[in-house]
Amino acid sequence: MNVLITGGSRGIGRATALLAGSRGWNVGINYATNASAAESAIADVQKAGGKAIAIKGDVTNEKDVIQLFDAMENAFGPTNGVVINAGVTAQSMALADMTVERLRLVFDTNVLGAYLCAREAARRLPGASKEDCYSSIVLVSSAAARLGSPNEFVDYAGSKGAIDTLNVGLSKELGPKHVRVNAVRPGIIDTEIHASAGDPDRLGRLGKQTPLGRPGGADEVAEAIVWLLSPASSYVTGTNIDVTGGR
């Protein structure tokens, strides 16, 4: 299987790339700026048993998105799995305190970027697999879409609400073309996003509030993503899987 992962050099994207590599899959790891993280991820995918390439590109730039898919096809042939994972957040604060620059960054990356990648996948994935083994798009949403993230990230939450809607609509558009579309909604996951938002204690504080009493791991989210990519989920489309510890 040939899988392209946006934002694949760190966090959930990286964990997904490693798990895909352990299946012997070919992986395209998209990154925006951190080439060293992408190269490290490639090395780990290869150690796990897969093949990988790094593809630099800004998901908010239409030309870059097209080149992502071109590079993937040039390296491995037709792409039959796409994980739309690239996203950003910013410092925790109430909406009243957010600048328009911050709002544009979050919505351009998390909504426009996701839609551009999904559009390109919708153009290329039909016909990439046999009819009995559908191609698959997996969108990375967030439990924030359900919870709203008040006084923290209502912009991020809103952007992920758009991803949930994209999941519903695109799955209905592409199902007849033998492409499945699903989403995963992570909860409190142990990645660097919390520290980058200026609240390094958030992980432990909110993790304890889940029914399971702990934060989740990026590898646990990756398990759900890879299942949705695989033929094991062949009759699943338009579905959101919550990986939230019950929250």
From TrEMBL:
Q: Name one GO molecular function term.
A: oxidoreductase activity, acting on CH-OH group of donors
Look up keyword Disulfide bond and say if it applies: no
Keyword annotations for this protein, in alphabetical order, are: NADP, Oxidoreductase
What range does the record give for the signal peptide? none
Organism per entry: Baudoinia panamericana (strain UAMH 10762)
Tell me the protein's name. Answer: Uncharacterized protein
Question: Region Disordered: start and end of each range?
Answer: 195-215
- Return the CDD domains for the record: SDR_c (cd05233)
Q: Which PROSITE patterns match?
A: ADH_SHORT
Entry's InterPro entries? Answer: NAD(P)-bd_dom_sf, Sc_DH/Rdtase_CS, SDR_fam
Q: Which Gene3D superfamilies match?
A: NAD(P)-binding Rossmann-like Domain
The record's comment on protein family reads: Belongs to the short-chain dehydrogenases/reductases (SDR) family.
Q: Which Pfam families match?
A: adh_short_C2
